[in-house]
Amino acid sequence: MKENNLRQRLLDTAGRLFYEQGYKQTGINQIIEEAAIARGSFYYHFSSKAELLAAYLDRFVNDWFVGADAYLAKITDPKARITGLIDYRITNQKKRGLSGCALLKANAGLEAGDDELRQHIRILKQKMHDYVAKVVAASGHRQILSNEALTDMVVLLSDGGLVGTAIYHNTNDLEKANLLISQLI
Amino acid sequence: MKENNLRQRLLDTAGRLFYEQGYKQTGINQIIEEAAIARGSFYYHFSSKAELLAAYLDRFVNDWFVGADAYLAKITDPKARITGLIDYRITNQKKRGLSGCALLKANAGLEAGDDELRQHIRILKQKMHDYVAKVVAASGHRQILSNEALTDMVVLLSDGGLVGTAIYHNTNDLEKANLLISQLI
DNA sequence: ACAGGTTTAGACAGACCAGTCTAAATTAAA
DNA sequence: TTTAATTTAGACTGGTCTGTCTAAACCTGT
Q1: Band of the pLDDT at B128, cuts 50, 70, 90?
Q2: What Cα–Cα distance (Å) separates residue B47 from each residue in A44, A105, B43, B138?
């Protein structure tokens, strides 16, 4: 159906622009121009810009899980899958433009009243946390840290590394994060 | 001088609003209205909104160092000063509204062409990194990790914790970060 | 052929934005 | 007192923004 074509194209373009420029900095006009889609079509598929952002974040997280599954499936050593999580992020960042995590960036761009979107982001972040927890639990690591503590550590170092990526536009901090993790598993 | 009064009031108000709402989301109109200052006076002291942001970030980092010095001075055990760095951030966050680090938030709100500001933020971030490095080097920690690795770890966990603060509006992640650090020093 | 869902181009409204300008008032310094 | 620096209120420009609307075209399934 054409509906899907247009919807996907809007999500693709908006996602790229939201990620590169930020949500507030990206206007509807730019989105529809770059997607080569009429204004009316945009509002036919999305009732507002905020709804577009929510849909984009959903798809982003979904794609993240699918990509992580595929990436980790190639790693046989369950312990190496923990550092694999960060390697996956490094790969993604290099592919997508070194601007940090879309979720974290979206959160930073929220306005005072966007409580619905903020809650949405919290849920998605929690999902990613749970994903890490599963990988850690199945890793058979050395238990220098508990499963919970190690999970927290991976998530925190990962987020910290992504912050560094957004600032410095390189993956140095993510690589440092992985070095630290590898010493504790 | 009144010049300073007005300038400080503008920096105070703008800083609070930039922090709570974000740079792009905060207009000149709101700043001058809440600071109760005339439009002309604003442009008498700052030539543009971007210049105001740069001045605000400079003052923010400066205050951060002054506050950190004062906070750490009360801690006699040099090792406890490392976790003290995070405790200081927790205190600050609770005081200032649990919206994460102003520097990281400003970076996330930059536009495509703001290379000057981006470079500015990099330098300030590096300064804070160096500050942490000094505290670590003087701590006499157990050397489970090298000085450099431990510094990286503190910075990354701290940034990760601040991301969590910005998303969840609590300091749980910063407290987790400190728990992890305390096990490795 | 027909109907309904989809897409187009573009005008439009209403609001906000950053920054400029004027002219008068206030303050500080000499 | 005179001069210069500072502050005020507010109009104004030119631009951008999201979202609405219209009227015509296009496609698709029946």
Answers
A1: very high
A2: 42, 28, 5, 42
